[in-house]
Batch of 2 targets.
Target 1
Amino acid sequence: MIEVVRADITQLKLDAIVNAANNSLLGGGGVDGAIHSAAGPQLLEACRKLDGCPTGEARLTPGFNLPAAWVIHTVGPVWHGGDSDEASQLRNCYINSLDLARDKGLRSIAFPCISTGVYGYPRRQAAVIAVAAMREYENQFDKIICCCFSDSDVWIYQKVMAS
Ligand code: AR6
């Protein structure tokens, strides 16, 4: 089942939440900053050992002080106008995160709207990619959550889900 919710992803008690990180995996602002501050300093220690992450790939750490058991860190593309492979890189974020979660036996997972904050990806185009990827994996999870941080994102996802 795919659900669209408006929430702070750090509050969700699920098997995994996904972090929209950067290539260093050493923290930042936005949802990345919120996840690190809620998880506590052990998360940064765990991330240091991962030695970064290429754009479109995904890495797993425990959730530490988060209600979620695991964090999947993925790195979305920076939007450069759409001709720089952004769409396939964004799709890879979702696919690789879902593959990692499934292979670890996780049953519930929430995604933020990857790349649509600081990285500037157009929100509707990003939602179309996100929902298409989630639909491919829907039967392999109990719950896949689109965790929106604003009412306008909820509205975009609801429109995309209905189409
Ligand atoms: N819960 C859910 N969604 C959130 C939260 C939250 N607590 N906080 C923000 N969002 P962004 P990006 C939404 O900028 O565009 C970081 O510095 C936000 O409204 O966090 O992939 C990293 O270190 C937006 O819809 O991620 C990277 O350097 C979405 O999360 C860079 O930002 C993504 O916004 C990654 O940029």
Note: The pocket of AR6 is lined by residues 8-10, 20-22, 28-32, 34, 76, 112-119, 147, 149, 153 (CB under 6 Å).
Target 2
Amino acid sequence: MRHLTFAANWKMHIAPAEARAFASAFLAQSNPVEGRTLWFFPSAVSLEAAANAFGGRADVRIGAQDVHWEAKGAFTGATSIPLAHGAGATGALVGHSERRHVFGESDEETGRKVAALLAAGLTAMLCVGEQLSEREAGQTQAVCLRQLRAGLGGMGQDQWGQVVIAYEPVWAIGTGRNATPGDAASVHAAIRAELGRLGAPGRRPVLYGGSVNQGNVASLLAESEIDGVLVGGASLDPAGWARIVATG
Ligand code: PGA
């Protein structure tokens, strides 16, 4: 049976009280569907509220938007994996394009974060994707595969079950432009081939992200290479998100 993952990246939105209100509205409109996993990535301050509010649903997982690779210490403003886990996270995004291109996160840092998450027994959702200039220069696959190798370079071969990949072309994020399903699928196929070369023993989920909404999600999920979606703007409304996770 095909497994689909629907991931909501709430970015710098949704305070704890809003997370509770979102969960009660969403849960009233959405029932678990076999073969579907729902991830919510709230801000660090709303992790615990979200984890508690969604607590009863076995298909729901809560993740941090970013973590530091050190377990503790003098890192003002950062969230460690034990802190996120203590608040209810069982995974985290790593290398989201806003971390890379707004906050200057390097490939090497993504590798450390993935390795630390996997060592702690959590899931790492590693985001890769090219900028517009890289796409125009014909470097899409080279950039994505470089980010993939750097992000996964420190992992152990027994940790593949904790790895999810999200392909998010930077030019498609929050812009209303999205890759055509066929374009996305061909990058997904290249990512999947690289995962095989890196030693992935079976099929790992590869999600698509970038301006996914109610109008385009069905055509993206129609591609067998696309195992789900990572969604920002269209995940902020509980009714709309309930419709998206019911697609297909
Ligand atoms: P968007 O964001 O759906 O608002 O384009 C996706 C993401 O950045 O994960």
Note: The chain has ten helices and eight strands.
